Amino acid sequence: MPSTRNLAHAALAGAAVACLTAPPAAAAAGGSPLAGVNAAPGKGAEALTWRPCATTAKDWPAPEDTKSECALVTVPMDYAKPDGRKIRIAVSRLKAADPAKRRGVLVISPGGPGISNITAPSSYAANGLAPLATDHDLVGFDPRGVGYSDRIDCDEGTFEPPANASAKAQAKALFDHMAAANKRCTALDPAFARQLTTRNIARDVDAIRAVLGVPKISFYGVSYGTAVGLNYRSLFDTRVERMWLDSVMPPVMDLAAMDAAADAVAERNFDGFVTWLAGHDPEYHFGATPQRAREAVFALRDQLTRKPRPAGKGARLDGEWVRSLLGLDATGWATAARDLATARDGGVPRSARPSSGTAPVYGFDDAPLGLNSTQYNGVFCNEGTGGRDFDRLWADAEARRRTYPATGGGIQFGSWCAGWPWPAQPWRPVRGASPLQVSGHVDEATTPYAWAVDTVKAAGGTLLTVQDNAHASLAKLPCADKAVEFFRTGRTATGTCPGMQ
């Protein structure tokens, strides 16, 4: 499942100011010691003043990287008003190591929302896509609202669930907390917050293409970066050389459907878990058959739902804690069994749930500049449907508990849109003619494989099935050479690919 996002964002205030200059208090942030900000589209990359990122960008998270260059590109905040307010997008590049073999530009968008992507060129030059650094300029960027690009900095505050409250009352308290935070944070710069959309990020990518002076770009997108890629291809199909999308977002951001898809994968994992647990009954004592193990785990969950137990240091054991362990894939079964047995026997497991609220962030990389929660919420809520009405949100969660009795009912995506001040404007991909390769991971939960299948149905392209449960693992696998071949020759890949073991 996605990693957890702490509502307090205690580290964000310190990390997010590690931008190029301090932001104005109540506006989208920005500013930089970098020159050449307002480069004219079409005049080529040298119209920008490129400087070494490690010595130019304050608190550059990869100080050992001496080859990446950084610049800022100015774009319209609202593309419907191209002559209106401008914002700045931070861009990095690694020039092709062998200029004589240079084939073009590969833009890399490795994840999010809410996290910095600007170190992607140096990161991907060190993984399975490294051969492409020889004959492509690798280009990364911080999407609007994140990292070194213009952004809003706003701390959501700390959420403490009401003591001894029902699950519904706790969920409602979190919903109300998020509504207040969204109201406060969007009010800092409502015009900017309203323009935090995937479509605008895709338009920013095209502005980067234009200022680089190339007629087409290739694009490698991962996780949320696949949504950026799909939107770019839908808007600018003729400007795509080749595009590969790994661990793919759904073609429609229906937040309730996204929760349901995650629950379905987790429930399948649970079926495997209780079978494994029965086979390890001499060690964990939950029952020697899958049915008995299932009943014992449910009994523990029901007990802690009725009577949560404090676990010290601001943590507690409750039914939601049990549920969070039941949908793990096979790599987490031993840990889950150990912690569940510890709780059953009266001890305090290592994974005891913090009393302050936590919830998922949809991405896979650690964010070097911290999570920007306003951008995270903006991307999902400006374009994703659902999450505005608590009663509907709760009814949907209860329905999923009935459908998926072990793992269903988590409110993962919709809760972030509580009190969001604007209606959703959903995007849908358009079938294009440019070369599109999609890779999905058959057992992963973060971006379920079904989303890759749905994307190919909606947008076209070719599907490669990676046989693992790992999110975004393609660039770390031997079959990364298929991506290298695709970007060099256009040859697509079908069938299956061995995954991470």
UniProtKB/TrEMBL annotation:
Every Peptidase S33 tripeptidyl aminopeptidase-like C-terminal domain range: 416-492
Keyword Signal in annotation: yes
Segments forming a coiled coil: none
Domain of life, source organism: Bacteria
GO molecular function: hydrolase activity
Keyword Cell membrane among UniProt keywords: no
Signal peptide stretch: 1-27
Similarity section: Belongs to the peptidase S33 family.
Protein name: Alpha/beta fold hydrolase
AB hydrolase-1 domain boundaries: 105-276
Keywords annotated in UniProt: Hydrolase, Signal
